[in-house]
Amino acid sequence: MKYVCSICGTTEDVATRNAKCDCGGLWKLDYKPPAFDLALVDRDTWSIFRYRAFMPLKGEQWREISLGEGMTPIVQFNKDVLLKMDYFMPTLSFKDRGAAVLITHCKAIGVDSVVQDSSGNAGNSVAAYCAKAGIDCEIFVPEGTSPKKVNMIKAHKAHVNIVPGSRDHCADVCRDKVANDGKYYANHVYNPFFYQGTKTYIYETYEQLHRIPAHIVIPLGNGTLVIGIVKALEELLESGVIEKMPQLIAVQSEHCDPFVKAVLVKAKRAAMNTTPQPTIAEGISIGVPMRSEEILQYIYKYDIKVITAPEDRILEARMTLAAKGVYCEHTTAANYAAYLKFCEMHGKIEDCLIPMCGAGLKSDH
Fold first, then answer.
1. What range does the domain containing 355 cover?
2. What is the dihedral of CA 61, 65, 71, 72, to 10 degrees?
3. Residue 346: predicted pLDDT
4. Most CB atoms closer than 10 Å: which of 116, 266, 288, 306?
């Protein structure tokens, strides 16, 4: 198992402290799991690590780091829509899937201090798992991040830096710290171990439903869930567990839509000069998605539909969900708002799975 540069193909040991290749390319992980088979699932482990047979893990560090993440229920919202309740997590967001695996890897290779940038949820997850692992943690968040998310990060004893300006500028500031201080960059965009956690979203769905829904809505900012879901679906296809790829529908903010713009002109990478307008869907307000080329390859290969969530309908969607007992954060409500828009544009679709990524109290500000 090695890292492979996404640009020049250089390989590197996964124990490296280098966040990316010397040429600037981000790492991919040269790892192929065994054919997916429910018989290899450890039914006595009640976390995402029940799927560790399909993860690139060495040793048993996961046992001291897991907080019981995953195993989130799928509920029938109405006759056409299923909701996967991924805010039923230790830090109340789906990012715990990736953080649990990433910090397990950090512990395995002897990392004792990390930095991370985030709009809130990923930083919160990394901080929590670092606290469990006994790893020092410093998190950078952009101004305007929900105070409740910031307070949660601080509660995990991580140091928090609130950076003026956009989410993308916040990432630049954090990466400067990595370059200057030599800190380990435990980042959900750069580090491919994170996607080995988010792919469990699909493993669970298949185990719970004994099938994969015909349509799957996925939020798309940096693409951490998109990449994980596609990787897992490819594994299921290669294993003969499913016969075809479901229709994936990727959701961007109406005020920050670099992938939508790229798809319109069949670009190979998203434009990197997007200046996001203010949006309540803060979790997907990413103007400079660093893995845009990889994600666009998936979009074109699998005909993933990319759609924007109408800004003026996100709160309405949130209230509709809450009126039926589902209280989610604004970015999560954008998924449902985009689903409704997609149905208006293309006709009603049946058998659609939508992730409930973050809990409502996290964005009440």
1. 74-89+193-363
2. -150
3. 95
4. 116
CB 201 within 8 A of CB 84: yes
For residue 3, what are the contacts with CB-CB under 8 A and spacing of at least 6? 11, 12, 13, 14, 16, 27, 28, 29, 30, 192
Is 216 part of any domain? yes
Task: Classify the phi-psi angles of 303: left when phi > 0, otherwise alpha if psi is within -120 to 50, otherwise beta.
Answer: left
pLDDT digits (tens, 9 = 90+) for 26-40: 999 999 999 999 999
What's residue 168's pLDDT?
87
Whether 197 contacts 101, CB under 8 Å = yes
Sheet with 2-5, edge to edge strand ranges: 11-12, 2-5, 27-30
Structure tokens given for 74: 């799928």
Q: Evaluate whether residue 252 is within a structural domain.
A: yes
The sign of the torsion formed by the CA atoms of 64, 225, 231, 190 equals negative
CA angle, 172 then 307 then 221, to 5°: 20
Longest dimension (CA), the chain: 54
- 334 in a domain, yes or no? yes
- How many structural domains comprise the chain? 1
Q: Is the pLDDT of residue 364 over 80?
A: no
Instruction: Judge if pTM exceeds 0.90.
Output: yes
Q: What is the CATH number of the domain that holds 264?
A: 3.40.50.1100
Per-residue pLDDT of 334-363, as tens digits, reads 999 999 999 999 999 999 999 999 999 988
Nearest to 349 by CA among 257, 249, 227, 244: 249
Burial code (b: 16+ CB inside 10 Å, e: under 16) for 8-26 equals eeeeeebeeeebbbeeebb
**Tens digits of per-residue pLDDT, 191-242?**
999 999 999 999 999 999 999 999 999 999 999 999 999 999 999 999 999 9
Q: What is the mean pLDDT of the chain?
A: 95
Residue partners of 323: CB distance under 8 A and separation at least 6 = none
